[in-house]
## 1
Amino acid sequence: MQITSRFTIAIHILTCIDYFKDERRVTSEFLAGSVNANAVIIRGVLSQLRAAGIVSTRQGSGGAAITRALNEISLYDIYKAVDCIDENGLFGFHANPNTDCPIGRNIHKAMDKHLTNIQNSMENELKKIYLSDVVEDTIKQIQAENG
Amino acid sequence: MQITSRFTIAIHILTCIDYFKDERRVTSEFLAGSVNANAVIIRGVLSQLRAAGIVSTRQGSGGAAITRALNEISLYDIYKAVDCIDENGLFGFHANPNTDCPIGRNIHKAMDKHLTNIQNSMENELKKIYLSDVVEDTIKQIQAENG
DNA sequence: AAACTTGTAAAGGTATTTATTACAACTTTG
DNA sequence: CAAAGTTGTAATAAATACCTTTACAAGTTT
């Protein structure tokens, strides 16, 4: 299993929007070209980012823009926006353990606390990384390939 | 997306094996009853745990046993045994970004380092929790429901 | 009005996961 | 040694989740 690629697509999109913002209108079609995915996928991700207040889009005229400073958007914000994982839902539980068995009846509660802590620690790491970090690293990569 | 339920099934199984070890022979059929899953699924998980040296099983006579002390088996050991997630594979990348675009060509490398760190920090948390912790908590839950 | 773009629903396809069936190999017991 | 019970594993089917594509209404610009 993997965290949905919508998350890395979202980071890709946001990096593109910032990179090309002064150069051209960044439409879903253009972004689809860079990501190499269908434009409807891109529009779906943009929809989620818009609902989270991270980007603005305009019908008709087209083009997406980032609404906040890059160092005010954490990877956690993006992760939450594209709805990667339910609250406490990182670890899948098997449905309907047998309640006639003392273990089946209680194991879920016993595991929950620990697994929630693990998920929280992962999400806390996401909060420490900002879109600005990724954009800077991407630009370094681009400069490295030219020099 | 979620981490496969084989992980929580494995913890459930191991807790059962320990809990019932002095009382009865713990067969895959019995475990399937507690988990409420098909016995073949249980045998598959037991196979993986056996390959990792966490349990031993016996053909014919039947029954599974844990090979180490519970406080020497971390949730990370179990997580690795049941092959939840590939190395650096927690976050799914969209395949084939457009290499004609400077962002498409470089974003992957720029994200990789950060996402690997996040996955590592999650896995390090798994190393801090032992099967003994989960078993103790489960027994506390059982005692609480009786008293 | 024409051309272009976003927003979203709906249908189709693909991949992954889980469940089931089947049976060979092994162990114990009478 | 035969019968009963169990593990180990392959193969197939079913269910679920995910991604892609088609279609079109609604908005904007020229």
Note: Helices of chain A lie at 6-20, 28-35, 39-51, 75-81, 102-127, 131-146.
## 2
Amino acid sequence: MTIAEVSKEYNLTPDTIRYYEKEGLIPRVPRNKSGIRDFDENSCRWIEFIKCMRNAGLSIEVLSKYVKLMGEGPKTASERKKLLEDQRDILLKKQKDINETIDRINHKIQIYDDIVKGKREDYILEP
Amino acid sequence: MTIAEVSKEYNLTPDTIRYYEKEGLIPRVPRNKSGIRDFDENSCRWIEFIKCMRNAGLSIEVLSKYVKLMGEGPKTASERKKLLEDQRDILLKKQKDINETIDRINHKIQIYDDIVKGKREDYILEP
DNA sequence: ATATCATTTAGAGTATACTCTAAGTCAAGT
DNA sequence: ACTTGACTTAGAGTATACTCTAAATGATAT
């Protein structure tokens, strides 16, 4: 698979994919004789995995560290576990923050709905 | 309330608070005769609100827009409602992404736990 | 009166994560 | 042979959100 195909498949620009490889977010992608990347299934799985993690907000630095540990073999398993636990805890916190914010926003939407329908007066400058 | 007190109360640096005011994330804070900010209850409520929104990931640009609309009075109520609905939809998507990622991470943690306990072999370079 | 300390501003600097540019290589089509 | 078009690289540029610096001002303590 060429970088253009992978780009389309995962909706990431070729630049981003190359950047991810350079930063070590995905292990070295196989190349053909002229040095052009030829993504195999494993590379694609990595890209999908990294995209998922990035969508949730994990940093380039953390993901790079994780891939590095993967490359160092079984002896890093417990360190990888710790890293994932830390990131999960951060995501659980983020989940809480987002839930709280959604609730507040929904409450405000309700108020604006009332205002728009003339059932309520608008606020002044209060949040 | 001085900026130092507000900084402590909401765990934001004075620089960040000044930056938020400059970018219009909070309406103009009252000043004393020598030009020093003297945060009243309304300013504090705004800061708490903005902090909550920023924690959930709403951008400076969007929040600045929202505060600007607030300042323009009741006629912008429906525009504000639309803005909040858009942001809520983004947060709902983010929530989904995070849930998916937490599930995947938990699954991996389980696998690493087995590996660390010698119940399973480590993977090679698969995500 | 003077030193100390918090505050103010404008504007420069930093971190993160891309995104673009320029110059070059290579395979395929005409 | 030559153009086209996709790919390559290093490195510069951009967007976002702070964070720091420097110089000035004002209130308080000695």
Note: Chain B touches chain A through 50 residues (CB under 8 Å).
